[in-house]
Amino acid sequence: MFSLKPSYGFIFSLDGHTDKIKHCRFFDEDRKVVTASLDGTLKVWEAQTGTLDYTCCHSSKDYLLTCDVSADCTKLVSASVDCFAKVWDASNGDLLHSLGPHNDVVRSVSISRDSNYLCTGCDDGSVRVWDIHSGVALSETPKQNGWITDCHFSADGKTIVSVSDNVHWWSSECVLKQVFFIKGGFAKDICYSDDFKTFVMVDDTSSLFILRRI
Fold first, then answer.
1. For 141-156, what is each residue's pLDDT tens digit?
2. How confident is the model at residue 205 (pLDDT cuts 50, 70, 90)?
3. C-alpha–C-alpha distance, residues 83 and 57, integer Å
4. Which of 50, 105, 169, 194 has the fewest CB atoms found within 10 Å of its own CB?
């Protein structure tokens, strides 16, 4: 952990994972940090002290690749090489739902802003939408040609963007709305404006794309 002001100095390290940390997120008004590691665990820490609150063991043998936190700070979700996404109680780390099995690695996951739904992106090229409270799968997109490396809901929850060999926009019912074709490469991550009209991404050739959805 590093201070952003006034000197940008080192504060402390979060020690406890036994392999690389792939993703982290602040939540609870930046009072807590969740980390997802290749050791198969999520860990939640006190951001001010670095104290470990609890550990969620997603898998004893498979990597975790990413995680997300619901906007209401009540749920965590982890995504793994084991073909499952898992939903956890953010207050104590209890497992609530195991979502899957998917047909391949779950590489991306995102919770809707109203904290009611989540989408998972799979290496088989599909995106699934789930009810986060019941753990029931609601819809699934047709399979694309590449891994789904990133996926996100719009603020109103009505549209999903997914990134693979191309960029796709879907309705929340997984009906295709629009496609941006990437020539000669694939993208890994995408950033977006609050109105979900402007998007920025970098592909594997280091080309920067700024997209305006029409």
1. 999 888 999 999 999 9
2. confident
3. 15
4. 194
Measured at the CA of 190, the angle between CA 196 and CA 114, to 5 degrees, comes to 50
From CA 137, how far away is CA 151, in angstroms rounded? 16
Q: What contacts 58, CB < 8 A, 6 or more positions away? A: 40, 41, 42, 64, 78, 80, 82, 84, 86
Cα dist from 28 to 40, 129, 158, whole Å: 23, 25, 25
**How many angstroms separate the CA atoms of 167 and 184, rounded?**
13
Q: In this structure, what token pair is assigned to residue 132?
A: 């986060």
Q: What is the DSSP string of 159-209?
A: EEEEESSEEEEEETT--EEEEEEPSS--EEEEEE-TTS-EEEEEETT--EE
Spatial separation of the C-alpha atoms in residues 40 and 58, rounded to whole Å: 6
